[in-house]
Amino acid sequence: MEAKIGRFFESVGTFFSGGDQIPWCSRDIIAGCEREVAEAASGVSDELKNESIMRLSWALVHSRQAEDVQRGLAMLKASLANSSSPLQKREKLYLLAVGYYRSGEYLRSRQLAEQCLEIAPDWRQALTLKKTVEDRITKDGVIGVGITATVVGLIAGGIAAALVRKN
């Protein structure tokens, strides 16, 4: 019985906290990627420079800091036009979708995940992200309906109490 109660409270906590499976990235990893980009900018091949920028973009959109996520989004948007292969475009679209998810722009995130799936229909990461985004959209809708019902109930209760006092 105690285990069932524990699982219930855990599921309620996950519902309200948004327990998704998308990894987070620490400031230390971001700092390491920034050093790598700075080193790559000093004359090595363009391919190595692009790879280090992609790693930094990945780290930024997976950050817990909103300003890092926004920076990652800006980098990815700027580099999307330079994608030379469908694989590169898919990766950048996916990272943009993660960044928009982290920013709370769920509809844009879902749209980008769907674009990834147009390029690679069986790509598990994009499928998982799309499901995570859709679950979040559904959950936000349920919470919104609950808040609306509560407000309507409070207003109706207030009107009923005012009418009872009047009589």
From TrEMBL:
- Write out the GO biological process terms: autophagy of mitochondrion; mitochondrial fission; peroxisome fission
- Give the source species: Davidia involucrata
By its UniProt entry, which SUPFAM superfamilies does this protein fall under? TPR-like (SSF48452)
Please indicate which superkingdom the organism of origin belongs to.
Answer: Eukaryota
Give the way it sits in the membrane: Single-pass membrane protein
Spans through the membrane: 141-164
Instruction: Please state what the annotation says regarding this protein's domains.
Output: The C-terminus is necessary for mitochondrial or peroxisomal targeting, while the N-terminus is necessary for mitochondrial or peroxisomal fission.
Q: What is this protein called?
A: Mitochondrial fission 1 protein
What keywords would UniProt list here? Membrane, Mitochondrion, Mitochondrion outer membrane, Peroxisome biogenesis, Transmembrane, Transmembrane helix
